[in-house]
Amino acid sequence: MVEMHPFVRSCLGWNAWRTGAGYNGLSVRAKLVVIWLVVGCALLAHGRAFAQPASGDVPSRLTEEGLRLLELGDLQEATEKFSQAIAADPNHISAYSNLGVALRRQKRFAEAVEILQAAVKLRPDDARLRSNLGLALRGAGRLGEAQTAMRQACALDPGNAVLRRHLGILLLEGARGDEAETELRAALRIDAADAETHTALARLLARSERRQDAIEHYTTSLRLEPRQASLRRELGSVYEGHGELKEAAEQYRAALALDPADAAAHQALGSVSLQLGDLGTAEAELRRALALGPASGEAYRDLGILLGRTGRVEQGIESLRRATQLLPQDSRSRWNLATLLRKAGRSGDAERELRLARELNERAEHLMLARTYHNQGTELLKDGRLAEAAAKLTQAIQLDPQDPLARYNHGIALLFQQRVDEAIAEFEEARRLGIANPNVYHYLGRALLLKDRPEEAVAHLTEAVQYMPADAASRNALAVALAALRNYPQAIAQLEEAKQLAPGNRRIEANLTCLLNGPKGCELQP
Predict the structure, then answer these.
(1) End-to-end CA separation in angstroms for the chain
(2) Which residues contact 212 (CB under 8 A, 6 or more apart)?
(3) Cβ(102)–Cβ(115) under 8 Å?
(4) CB–CB of 239/269 below 8 Å?
(5) For residue 169, which of 129, 217, 204, 211 has the smallest C-alpha distance?
(6) Could you tell me if 225 and 196 are in contact, meaning their C-beta atoms sit under 8 angstroms apart?
(7) pLDDT reported for residue 396
(8) What is the mean predicted confidence (pLDDT) over 139-160?
(9) I need a labelling partner for 411 at 20 to 30 A (CA). Which of 1, 272, 341, 498 fits?
(10) CA distances (Å), 350 to each of 48, 132, 222, 345, in order?
């Protein structure tokens, strides 16, 4: 039985620990609760518990056993060993870190976040812990917090290429492409032979239609690690997207040589073969794709098109109906289904499918136009042409009202034109829609300050500082909001932190001087 530390036992008053079923009889979730109690008591003791670690090397031995199990893929047993190690020594950072990894790999993200947050409290300057926390937060769907944790990890270890890559990927997932590219290229300057970074950058470049650069980084990644079947398929899709069908087919075949059971590669090769007019290969590949992955709407769609071309109309209709069930937003499936229904003399059904296809096409065109307006508005915003930017972003939102980034950028344009109420509404809507950019809290807080709503401003600016602890501007604005509530000690503390982060910043220094000399007779600038 694992013995609890004497102080922790007395702190908890848990007499049943010795006489009851004990730690080893608890469920894993209950053990995590015990760990939290152990850590909480230890922290309350101001380090008293940590001064008396469990005797011997029991925690290290348990952690080593856990690592061995983790490498073997036995995640539950590894979790058990790491939990026992922490119970034996609440200060065993390696056990915390590896327990967080084990929980994350089991997709138990909330538990992983709790464990890693506890570890970060014990060792706040550990870049690895903050990185693992960032990955756990990402799994939990808390992308903004994940980006913040990974930024903190990079600040602690700026020469770590893996951390910079992780941050780049998180930024890309948050639609912050420019920042993502900066981080990924920084990672490659540190380690040019990292295949995963080349892959991440290739995906970013492909998404932004920079075909040649994307192909270059895909090729480099494959040169470094040739046996990446899925990456061959991705490269093939880049070629296919630019009409280079023979090159695409070559990559799909290479992917299948590495992984003959890759249903997506069979579907892709079947689709390209259909476009090249090689109907025999196309049918064989599409049927193989469906045998391996019967939920592939694309394979049903392309097979339906092929069957229609070869005179098997009823079979084609059946295949295309299945495609519309699996791909309800795919207008191409509906267009081709309407064509075959008309051939079969079922004009009423054909007209209904045509109407749905037109509606889907119109929606797709609206979204594409919305992206164009959004990009134009963003460029105008960067150039300081605020009224024009606001107009373009309004057009984008009219076409796609669910785009949180367009709402946020529109809020910025409105705020800088002193249209504060409208800006607040847009920032609030961006938050409701789940924007991953933590700057929304900064600008929302500043907007609320302008409306003399300091309590709300403090709440949002505190969020900004939590997400972006190294952002001097957010700390300065928070100080102004705190001062408006006459909370001068905390305001001064925030300004002193801001001054360390941005030495020589005149606004911060003026605000700090104002508060230190007494706030009367001077005006603070957020």
Answers:
(1) 57
(2) none
(3) no
(4) no
(5) 204
(6) no
(7) 96
(8) 90
(9) 498
(10) 77, 53, 46, 9
Second-level CATH architecture of 362-437: Alpha Horseshoe (1.25)
Nearest-angstrom CA–CA distance, 452 and 197: 46
- C-alpha 140: how far from its chain's center? 9
Task: Break the chain into its structural domains and give their ranges.
Answer: 362-437, 439-526
Region of 107 please: left (phi>0), alpha (psi -120 to 50) or beta. left
Give the Cα separation of 356 and 334 in Å (integer): 7
Banded pLDDT at 87 (limits 50, 70, 90): confident
Query: Is 307 or 36 the better-scoring residue by pLDDT?
Result: 307
The CATH number assigned to the domain with range 439-526 reads: 1.25.40.10
Please compute the mean of the pLDDT values over residues 293-302 and round it to a whole number.
Answer: 96
Q: Which residues of 328-358 are buried (b: 16+ CB within 10 A; e: fewer)?
A: eebbbbbbbbbbbbeeeeeeebbeebbebbe
| Separation CA 469–CA 230 (nearest Å) | 38
C-alpha distance from residue 214 to each of 200, 205, 220 (Å): 10, 5, 10
What tokens appear for 321 in the block?
């109906």
**How far apart, in whole angstroms, are the C-alpha atoms of residue 454 and residue 480?**
9
pLDDT of 421 > 80? The answer is yes
pTM above 0.85?
Answer: no
User: In 3-state terms, what secondary structure has residue 404?
Assistant: helix
- List, for residues 37-64, the tens digit of each pLDDT value: 444 444 433 333 233 333 348 888 898 8
In this structure, what DSSP letter does residue 26 have?
S
Cβ distance 494 to 466 under 8 Å?
no
Domains 362-437 and 439-526 equal at CATH topology level: yes
3-class secondary structure per residue, 240-306: HHCCCHHHHHHHHHHHHHHCCCCHHHHHHHHHHHHHHCCHHHHHHHHHHHHHHCCCCHHHHHHHHHH
